[in-house]
Amino acid sequence: MSASAQGIPGLPDLTHPHELVQFGTQALKGSLLLVFLVIALGIAIALISFSLRRNQSEQLVFFGEWAIHYSQLLRGLQHLALILILLIPGFFLCSTLSNRYHYWEQGKVTQVTQTVAGDKLEQIAPQVRYVIQEPYTYNTQVNGKIVKVNDTQKVNRFLTLAGSQIQVKLDQSVDVQGRSAIYSVDYTADYKVVNKLTDINSFFFEAPPPNGYSLLAGYKVERDKTRLQQTNPGDYGFPFRLEPGQETTFRVTYQAQGGPRWVYSAEGQLLSQFRLVATANFSPVDFASGIIPNDIKVDGSSTQFTWKFEDNVSVKNPFGVFTNSRPLGKTGVLPRLLLLAPALFLWWILLLYLSLPMNLKNVAIAGGIFFACLLTLTYAARVINAQLAWSLISLVLLTLTWGLGYNRRASLAAIICTISGAVLPVFGLLVPFSGLTLSLAGLLSAVWLAVRHWYGWYGLQSEQR
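User: That's the sequence. What structure does it adopt?
Assistant: Structure tokens below.
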């Protein structure tokens, strides 16, 4: 399995069977320990009561007081156990969803990366090569003596192209098995060569086909409308003669398939009288490598890019066309939210406990609604904006939370707790200003509790529903 498919390292994932078994074993051990502690406390109270059996008045006082405390402890443990039952599986649910969403995001990133990286069709600018005899000196040993020898060697030199007029037509085939897209390229280029040398008239016109092609057809090199023949298979160097001061024109044409990008590389040459027109008969499309075209024309689903360089222009990076795609939003936002969701759940439940009389049934229903809303957000965020999805889900959450109150005042209190403890914190983790939004949610929670308990501005009846 690839690294991206494994999700976030070290995070539990209930879709892995061995982690599910491990979680069940630990939960069973923890529940047994809690049961033993409760039983041990009951036995301790019984033993103390038995030791005071001779003094009936002290026994009645002690037993009555501790029986009340023990009963309150059992009721508190019921609520604690229910919260743990909701919190622990909720944590594993959120960690699993975080892993799944992380894997989905990485898959989307990989898919987009394949359209702008990896295989490409790269056309190298042709070169005009000539050979000269260059003197050089070396030392050798003759009869035990060091002798300096003057000799000549063949050295390759290159002429700068006097002009380049290139027409490229690009078509795209999508949904190709194993690839994101394939480009079909129709390439036609006219290159002007001027012999500015005074003593050289023998040259080689080297025009290699594009790198990265999967199919090359109709490759042809012509000089002044006369086709040049290859001397050796795979050798794209064509010898020709050109007298000093004269000029000639070469035309290179071919059809190729590859991709999913097409770029032109000057290979360090100076470009003069250069014009490249690339017409992409698909959309969306954009220019590659940050070399801004001089002109961009859009006609329906066709886009034409034009690069013009007049005299002695050096272009370091290859430039051309690639299939554009919508930029991905900030990744990692939903996984971070899901990892913090159990803490937000505790925050919200604590506010409800401090604001309303909560019974076990209400706590269980509230917990189920909270994690169901997060589950809905996780999958809704794949098709629509996460902030918009949570805004719609929040309306459902607030509508259901209204039912926690036993009258209008209690229902409004539940709404205030839900806004400050659930809606705003989750929304704060989805927007760029997370710290500010969470601070406002915390301030709203503190102000509400102070108004509710210290100032008595919002009194509620103590009876439960």
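The longest helix spans residues 56-116.
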